[in-house]
Specification:
The complex is a heterodimer of chains A (about 400) and B (about 500). Chain A has 13 helices and eleven strands. Chain A has about 400 residues and is an alpha/beta fold. Chain B contains 13 helices and 23 strands. The structure holds flavin-adenine dinucleotide.
Amino acid sequence: MAYPREPGALASEIRALRPAGADAPGSMWPEDAVPVPDYPLSQGAQREQKIARFLLGRAREMLRLRRMRPIERHGRKLDPQMQLLLALRAQQGQTNLLLGDSPAQARVQVRMGTLRFAQAEPAMASVHEFRIPGPGGSLRVRHYVPHAASEANSPLPLMVFLHGGGFTVCDLDTHDQPCRTIADRARVQVLSVDYRLSPEHPYPAPVEDARAAFAWAAEHAGMLGADPKRVGVAGDSAGGNLATVTALMALREGGPVPHVQFLIYPVVDADWTRPSRVELSRDFGLTLKDMEWSTQNYTAFDEALQADPAVVPIRAKSLAGMPRAVILTAGFDPLRDEGNDYAQVLRAAGTDVLHFEAEGMVHGFINMASVSTSARDALQQGCDQLAALL
Amino acid sequence: MSAVIVGSGFAGIGIAIQLKKHGVHDFVILEQAGDVGGVWRDNTYPGCACDVPSHLYSFSFEFNPDWTREYGPQREIYAYLRRCADKYDLRQHIRFNDRVERCIYDERHASWTVHTQSGRAYSAQFLLNGMGGLSRPALPSIPGLETFQGAAFHSARWNHDYDLKGKRVAVIGTGASAIQFVPGIIDQVAHVDIYQRSAPWVVPKEDGDIPAYRRAAFGAMPWLQKAARERYYWTAESRIFAFVKRPELLERFGERRAREYLEAEVQDPELRAKITPDYRMGCKRILLSNDWYAAITRDHVDVLTSGISHVTEGGVVDRDGVERPVDAIIFGTGFEAQNPVPAGAIVGRDGKDLATCWGKTPRAYKGTTVAGFPNLFLLGGPNTGIGHTSMIYMLESQFTYVLDAITSMKERRVRAIEVRQEHQDAYNERVQAKSATTVWGQGCRGWYYNADGVNTALWPDFTFHFRRQLKEFDAVAYHQEALRPGEDVRTLWVRTPDGETEVAHGLSA
Ligand SMILES: Cc1cc2nc3c(=O)[nH]c(=O)nc-3n(C[C@H](O)[C@H](O)[C@H](O)COP(=O)(O)OP(=O)(O)OC[C@H]3O[C@@H](n4cnc5c(N)ncnc54)[C@H](O)[C@@H]3O)c2cc1C
């Protein structure tokens, strides 16, 4: 729903709302900014979360009760909480992570499924939404300011966040909690972008939107009360791809380059023979079908695109000059190997890289943080590394 | 919070009572007629009664121990609704005799502006539509009707000034209304021609007087009445089992019973053949009656099935060219059910007209909200109709949802909600998929369906499934728009034709 604009009417009201730390001189939200209401959890969902937290808190015992053995692959141990979550999902007949009868159906399913297991936490000093100019019409963005902003004596960095979901599903709401966690834990502002989704808007639309959002953020960070010199990109899965591609394109085509990139289990390759893509694309959440479907939606398997660095950044002839990176991968994720490799390749190209593989995690774990403590810990570790690099 | 409610039938009165119970007094009810009651005010034809036991066909929050019959007559239901309106002091909220012409969503203020025939404009945060699906009589266009010199009226606009005594009457239609009023007039008239398009399935009605001692017991012990209501509910709901789960059972048991009843009541083989339905039972509303067959087997009744060609000054000519002289024509042709909202009546975001958006296929989310129409709630919207149990059960499920929505919006400072298109679509795909496995998915036609045979009216499942889905407002399926800092939601205001603005806030004070 488009927000009504009443030019000028909001500036003063918003200033009154602004947290002290964000109140640096000149800082202000755009005029059409509105606070974002939380989504209340239904009683059913609250109950489910409680049960899930209870079960996952005793994951080892539960697995033993179900006579499920610990799973090990190539020396990596699947986290018991992940194993139990996967078992519970399988029990409900959910064998794919994203796939649906149609993109619209899939969006509904994934949204409902994700929000049932999410919470509007950690609390923020403010969460606002507004629109910024985009190449295909205005883009909705959500701006998070953590409480840390009021304690800090200098403006916080700003991370432009691009959500995952195979370029096809998910939205600002599904990744609300991860954004809050990043803002809170890494002590950054986050600007989450509602970029256009495929297949209605295939490549390059999502990349164009991501780039436009970053360019806008780089220019307006000061207005948002953030540090204009430290504007980075972040994203998970498909969003990780958009984040690093944004950096790559900025590097190639001029204009501001992100200060840092935070890539969470990113898609960076189109090589279907990588061991993790072969061995882990069943039974661990993200499946081969999910990946094929996403690729179909995004590039329709166009051959030229499968080799284009704007789609598969790891294939770039040169990655020299790429901004420093934090790369967080998961041990039981089909995208593990390309993520790990990407860390190496970037390092080889001279980039500072902090790489951390969350050994026992599966793809999508950052969306499980409200019920799984191990998922939360893994995300927090990634955020800590980001904080260290900033 | 403020609201404009359209209509004062069960839907409008019910939601108004609930609003008041939840401390919301800032609302107005707009009613085109001169009194509350909806269909129960309009349908005054002889024999009009509900076909769901009255103890079930009434509000769960407003028991009436005084129903005199199992299936209460129209007079009592009408009186009941009037009593409800009085008890909760609703009349001061109602503006009678003012027809709603156009409701327009104002995005800037997140509110609805409702223009009425008298030139007034009411504005409030929410629009609660209780116009009713069966309030506009459907009149078939029959050539020559305008030349007819006798009396002609629709069952829902019964002409009580017209004395039917000794008259020759043509009855058009054999639906739920005709089957009630034909037995009601049969003793007065000289002759009746019944023009039947398709024969209804008719089963006996377990009707009867409720004796005074039972009424007294209900009055003294509301729990007893509650228990009776539960029993009626589950009896009705158990009937739906076959419709939903095992359509073939309807053939084996339902149809056989109905056929046995017909054969017991009607001896003449020619008439039997004419009035034996040719479609699967349950496809259309199953009618309840103990006196329909008795009435149509009378000597002064003819059942005609060849269809109507045209009407002359003094009679009706059938498709075989036979003219039958009559003094009066009564239409038992039902209602325009396929167009629950007239064109131009509800205009949402970006100037979109609800009736136009819907076209032949009305669609909503949970029968209640519609993408593109923020802050609008339909009471008795698409796919909330039922044939086997009380409509009020469905309406009350919606009341719960609406109340939860507006309370939750208030708590979280949300000024507008709008269902997400994908969620609405996914919901409707589920409803249609469900529909396909029921008796209603087996190629039936009737008012339950639109021109393409899509079920747009009926809820194709157990009603408790509907209730469960509407138990809580599911904000995740919605776009939400927050109030800006310092902003407050729209209160109710009215602009009169002289340009004056009266703030109607605190109507109850
Ligand atoms: C003869 C008959 C028998 C029925 N029997 C049963 C039964 O036994 N069991 C059952 O479950 N259901 C039955 N129904 C279905 C019945 O429609 C519902 O049960 C229920 O009464 C619907 O209530 P409502 O308030 O939604 O609509 P209505 O009762 O139709 O009320 C709508 C009100 O809105 C007003 N209105 C409409 N348009 C406007 C406008 N533009 N401006 C202002 N006011 C407007 C109308 O005047 C009316 O008062 C029957 C229907 C009929 C016609």
